[in-house]
Amino acid sequence: MAAKPAVKALTVSVSINQVTHQKYITYMHADMCRQLPKLGHEQLDRSFFELIIVCNAFATQQVQLNLEFVPTPSYLRGVRMVEQGTVDTHSASIWYSDINQSQLYASEEVLRTGEFEKGIYVHESHPLLILPPDKINLSHYTALSVKAWRHDWAVSQSIAQSVADTGHMPAIFEMLAAKRADFTLLEFSNHTSMDRVQNDIRLKILTGLKQLRAKGLIYPVYVKAGFINPKVKHWRVVNPLAIASIKAN
Asked: What superkingdom does the record give (predicted)?
């Protein structure tokens, strides 16, 4: 009987959004790659559960990762830290267009064009929630996004009357609660209700609407975590022309 290949240990420094790091502080101090957290029991950020995919990828090569997290204020700051050599990698998947490909090695895409789903979320008190789907015309409303998220910004511009900018993701909840905009594009929650909650501010999804249709390159992981949600499979796509434009680029 052939002996099993020896497992190598590798310590990797990982930039991670400081809000995500604080939210999952218990996991951050655990050996995540050795004791993978159970998905589906709490609201998880994509950057968190994508680390599980990284752990699994290295495990197939007989490499046991030890992750050392470095909190950062934003996604782009985390990417720049990788480019500068301050850390080894970033916690979440990165758009090809956001990196200097002459400096960094990029794996094959985790999610391909058209495989990224987001829902349209509004504050729980917004009157859009009581309208039937066929009466909703988002071109009469103001979207909210982070301008540095170029793809989200472009989609928001294609479906909304105008787009308000917020400097970073956590402020989205506060600004929607303050009625400074009407809706935003967010990744789905793995909660049964699909609600997104932060600091007691609850955002609800507009039933019957979806942004990007997906089947998922690593479908079971994304479905279980709630990032790809089977409940939206037959929902109406509100920006098919924008999707065609993204594919063309």
From this structure: Bacteria
